[in-house]
Amino acid sequence: MSALPEFEDHGKQEIKYTTCYMCACRCGIKVTVEDNKVRYIQGNRHHPINKGVLCAKGNAGIMKQQSPARLHQPMRRKPGTERGAGEFEPISWDEAIDTLSERLKKIRETDPRKLAFFTGRDQMQALTGLWATQFGTYNWAAHGGFCSVNMAAGGLYTTGFAFWEFGDPDWDRTKYHMLWGVAEDHASNPIKIGLEKLKRNGGKFVAINPVRTGYQAIADEWVGIKPGTDGLFALSMLHVLLKNSQFDWDFLVRYTNATQLVVQTPGQQGDGLILRDDNGNPLVWELEKEDFVDGSQVDIKPALFGEYTAPDGRPVKTVMTLLAERYLDDEYSPENTAEITGVPAEQTERLALEMAHVAFKETIELDIEWTDSWGRKHDKVFGRPVSMHAMRGISAHSNGFQTCRAIHFLQIMLGSVDCPGGHLAKPPYPKHVPPGIKPAKECAPNTPLKSPPLGFPTAPEDLVIDDDGNPLRIDKAYSWDAPISNHGMMHMVVTNAVKGDPYPIDTLIFFMANMSWNSTMNTAEVMDMLRAKDENGEYKIPYLVVSDAFNSEMVSFADLVLPDTTYLERYDTISMLDRPISEPAAAADSIRHPILEPDRDVRPWQEVMVELAGRLKFPAFTKDDGSRKFADYKDFIVNFEKEPGIGFLSGYRGKDGQSHLRGEPNPKQWEAYIENQGFFMYHLPESQQFYRYANQEYLELAKHAGWVGKTDPITIELYSETQQRFKLAGQGLYDGPQPTKQEHKDRLTEFFDPLPIWHKPLEQTRIDEDEYPFYAVNQRPMFMYHSWDSQNAWLRQICAQNYLYMNRQKAESMGIEDLSWVWLESHNGKIRVQVKLIEGCEPNTVWTWNAIGKQKGAWGLKDDANESQKGFLMNHLISELLPKKGDPVDDITNSDPVTGQAAWYDLKVKITPAEPEERGSWPQFDKVKATPGMSESPDQLRYHAHKPVHLNRDIRDVLTRGSLDDDKN
Amino acid sequence: MHPALSVILFTVTSGAGYGLFVLLVIFHLAGIGPAMSHGELIAHGVAALGLITFGLLLSTGHLANKKNAWRSFMRFKTSWLSREAVFAVLFYPFALVYGLCVLLFGPEIGPLGMVAGLVAAILAVITLFSTGMIYGCLKTIRQWNTALTPANYIMLGVATGAVAYAAIASAFGNATAMHAGVAIVMLLIAAVLKGIYYFWISRVTGPTINTATTFNRATVRLLDTGHTAGTFLTDEFGYDPGKNTTDILKMAVFLLGFIVPALVFAAVLTGAPAAIGWLALVSTLIGVGMERWLFFAEAKHVVRLYHGAQHT
Amino acid sequence: MRLGLVIDMDTCVGCHACAVACKQWNTSGTTGPLTDYQPYGEDPSGVWFNRIRHYEVGDYPNNKTVNIPMSCMHCEHADCVNVCPTGASYKRPEDGIVLVDQDKCMGCNYCAWACPYGARELDREDGVMKKCTLCVDRIYDEALPPEERQPACVITCPAHARFFGDFDDEESEVSRLVRERGGVKQMPELGYKPVNTYLPPRVTRPIPTDDVRANTLISSVKDWVNKMVAR
């Protein structure tokens, strides 16, 4: 056979490295470009996140770039047309920005909180948060409140780091991995890479999820748990560990507050708080001295268990005593939890003991020298090779915060926190428990906020409420409704703004958030709210600005549309000030830079924000002489310093680009990142890779880099005093702000607890569970990211219609046939959906893929697209408020009462077969119109970067040779 | 398998044509039956070649890239489709020489015509066999992967040819008991073979979803094909008319394809006018058309196992 | 050489990365473009060389979900090649890759009928059959770094469930995996001798628990005696 032809004209091709944005995983990509067209996107094998691999979404980047839904130019709602009608007229960027900055200027001069600015799936909260802070409005948050704030909060209030962006299993060394409530998304590639390593190394993989698809498919053991009961399952395993005395005694004594003493004076102020000396240091009982000593000292021998009487006469118990008393109770025995969780007692007990075996009988010992926070040198690190990862299935319940804490409790009991084989932190984490930032509480005209809008309350004093205890933020975050809502409560913004509760706003900006569709609860009614007018005929949300790259459902509700670029067309940072791309053993951050020239009149939202900040003369964006400090986003990233030497990007700092983590601005920083394949990595020496809550070298580095504010050791909080302070406030025993309404008192008393509790998801306490017998949850397909990928011609071929999946045997017992149409009804409404029967589903659960269902016409899809005609959204069934019972709780958010995390998965439903003629999904809505500049979506696609070079078979070969094997015979 | 109309019409008409041609040559050259007029001979010949040519032209109908159709002769060595094409084309010069001799010389065509006719008849049978083997050689479709497939193709061609022969003869007032008898016998053999075939395919054998997926110790069910809509594979292999339809059609095949024409010829034998042979031809072509549709529709390609079928 | 893939069903999570990577590479590859029909309309479809199918083995609660990516198996006994009337389908003698000469195919679909694994798809627009080329336009491209001279599906697989190599070389990774993990073939009874081989799910090691069970279970906090552990 002749030599192969030259298939690719490499001379015409250019290789560029940037960061993927087909989901929030932030993989490094290597893009081959040819004539401003993408030839090939592959994973960057040097990149810390994906190490060369790339998921289905990342591989379909070409088709996002080709999307017919791309917005083409700035637009305003056509004068005289109604909001939501989708009638737009193009305007120039100058006009768009003039209009917006004029409006914002007035707001900022008068009452800055009349601007609410909420962002969706962006990865630039450091910038948007800074922008809001400088504007002076605390009405800002990203989507974390309806995403996974419980994961973050659960960890940051316990171990100082959490899952995903905060920490990773030590995939190289772990021997046992428990995956909790992880649908197929975050963190996409790292989990897949890790699970394979685990299995290759002979480790065991246990998956806890009511559904067995995705990662659970390859689990060695599947725990098909009932939704919302994971916390009880975790605490039941904790019960087993305690019963068998399987916990890491040394670890608890050294690194946690297990030995601290808790005041036991029920009904009195101060009950349940840690016993402290006059300097505020926690006291412990020293076993040799047989006396109370400062528990922050080392080389003492504190009692782990015990009840004592404090010098002031108050009875105290160690945290561990309280913990053991609670969880040794039969209430938590596997036999007693089995009915609620659906997990057989034998399995609960065995899994707990398997973990104990791996942690304590297969302990890893590494010869690594390190120095603890007290300057003591050690020559070994010990690893408890049990690791965990948890995500939205845990967090999207109203008991999610407590459940997250319960999961961390298992890790802590096993001593598998930031140790070899366990759960490792990723810089800038761990942080002190909790991080020291408090949410801003005051807005004043033309004045930046004193602190960022979002922070970490530790006591009722930190709430963002007025003197009467009413919420100050439009989303009611940090109010008595949800005191520790660290990520805000974006899912409440539209409802509250339309009600004018706590007050009306003027302008609402949504960036990259589909808040009229799959990112909102109660979709149909929220669509009405967005259009709602007051008695004067004015819109209740007077001005709605949407920035997005694509014609999403939300765009049609905008008064002003600012078209964003795609991820291949802009500069961007995945900043160390945010949640960067670090690995456990390396601090890392990264950038995007334009790979392609936009073919439309679009601008990156980053540029628009920097432009607006300059025009509005935000102090941080303005020189002393009143002129603009930053020419554009690139300039801003290079020259902005949060504190001396600390900027958005931590690599290649200093005039010469040789300083890392901290250093002067480097005018060539972008070039340095681009040259280094779009990312920066600072490798930690082995001595700084473990026990970082008490690792002196590491904490010194962390302080130098601005990751932590002090080098004090981080005490892991089994016992959460923060929780107790709010509980005391509910009980009327707190010396500080206390709620006045009974419903708030009840919620604080019931749902706040210094040790994790399990309670029934709230929705289930306010409906007739016999009427709505099924749990209903959403899972995420691995090949789609929320609503984004129905516009993707390749990915939608994999799935353009979601089904309601249910357990086959259960369905058969109800006479429900495969592929039949049924009505699904909750307390909030009903929808018509098509059923698919499967084995891998807990019998009392039904589920579907999230965000496949689309509004007709949106995302460049044709009217007959499967997504709109047969696909559906579960969102219609989920209320943003708790089920109505005619009590004051009716108006409280359907969220975790601790963190305000949207309780998407608390939903319960009933199923009834549809009539034979009832086909297709319901409800249906008006068609989303195409926007100016969009062309008709094609009937056929034949994407190629260049004409193919064919391989031709020689004619003699044709005539003489069949398949090899046959010729041999 | 998706029953492509072009392929059904092709195999039915060309099959009848080859069958008619073979019988024509045998009856003509061996002098079986009543002597044929020049006109009748030409009519048989034109009908046969017409049916064959019509069928072959239709056969290119399902090609997605007709400009490369000429290349189908290239792989005679291994491909039955290539062989069919080669034999079908090779048939023509001999058939045309035979036809030319008939045109020029009438019934007494001389040795050249006789040899050409004989070779053409043999090539006709080989072509029918090759057509059958196109399907018969496929291990992926158990309903086809049997010697019964080429046997059926040959016998159905011959039987429809026999019916056509009798019908044409009747048009010339030349039909006799011999014609009717031959048609009945051929129909009977074809019907028996088809009956055996239907019985044979009703017994499930071969790969299952278990061997396809490699999981042999438990029930395997399809969870998701990995694509929302149909693909080339589901279009091509996913056709399933359902057992009710196929059962009814099978009865219709026997009724229209074999029983009605046989009864018609039985009536002719017992004195009915020979002209009703045309009824038999129409009936048998419809019946065999349905048989051919079923041949495809009932064929279950093993790829279906990957789309959820438990067996083929 | 006998080039082909090993696919690990123990780690394949069914994410479709390989399928889309394949689509992406090959739409601009030697047999591209790969047409998509109704890309934004009802029932979108198109030409793909690699499709991931999902199955459930066993009844609830003893069910396991299995993901099976499937593309051309580059069979040793490649009937698709033998049945092809035009000679467009061929198996390269030097490495066993089965290819379709796009300029010779007449689009009769016969090769697809002969393929038990659904590896071949007709491009209706081009009128020719297309299929996995094992990225013949990558694996021999010396302009690519050596580690990238692999099929796009293998490079991209996040679960490292795909391996590419020479099955004739007993020392190759693919041969070793097949030996060590007991590789299996789909529908071996048909006799196509597919080269691509699947690794069955691993059997989990049993984890003992008797060594962490207490002889006497703790019933109250008072059962514990404090240990002298220095902080």
TrEMBL record, chain A:
Gene3D superfamilies: 2.40.40.20, 3.30.200.210, 3.40.50.740, Dimethylsulfoxide Reductase, domain 2. CDD domains: MopB_CT_2. Residues 66-86, 916-948 are annotated as: Disordered. Its cofactor is [4Fe-4S] cluster. PROSITE patterns: 4FE4S_MOW_BIS_MGD (PS51669). Keywords: 4Fe-4S, Iron, Iron-sulfur, Metal-binding, Oxidoreductase. InterPro entries: Asp_de-COase-like_dom_sf (IPR009010), MoPterin_dinucl-bd_dom (IPR006657), Mopterin_OxRdtase (IPR006656), Mopterin_OxRdtase_4Fe-4S_dom (IPR006963). GO terms for molecular function: 4 iron, 4 sulfur cluster binding; metal ion binding; molybdopterin cofactor binding; oxidoreductase activity. Pfam families: Molybdop_Fe4S4, Molybdopterin, Molydop_binding. Residues 13-69 form the 4Fe-4S Mo/W bis-MGD-type domain. It is found in: Cell envelope. SUPFAM superfamilies: ADC-like, Formate dehydrogenase/DMSO reductase, domains 1-3. One of its GO terms (cellular component) is cell envelope. PANTHER family: DMSO REDUCTASE CHAIN A, TUNGSTEN-CONTAINING FORMYLMETHANOFURAN DEHYDROGENASE 2 SUBUNIT B. Belongs to the prokaryotic molybdopterin-containing oxidoreductase family. This is Formate dehydrogenase.
UniProtKB/TrEMBL annotation, chain B:
Keywords: Membrane, Transmembrane, Transmembrane helix. The keyword Membrane applies. GO terms for cellular component: dimethyl sulfoxide reductase complex; plasma membrane. The keyword Membrane applies. The chain crosses the membrane at residues 7-29, 41-64, 85-106, 112-138, 150-172, 178-200, 248-269, 275-295. InterPro entries: DmsC (IPR007059). PANTHER family: ANAEROBIC DIMETHYL SULFOXIDE REDUCTASE CHAIN YNFH (PTHR38095:SF1). This is DMSO reductase.
Automatic annotation (TrEMBL), chain C:
One of its GO terms (molecular function) is 4 iron, 4 sulfur cluster binding. Residues 3-33, 62-94, 96-125 form the 4Fe-4S ferredoxin-type domain. Keywords: 4Fe-4S, Iron, Iron-sulfur, Metal-binding. InterPro entries: 4Fe4S_Fe-S-bd, 4Fe4S_Fe_S_CS, ET_IronSulfur_Cluster-Binding. This is Ferredoxin. It comes from Thioalkalivibrio halophilus.
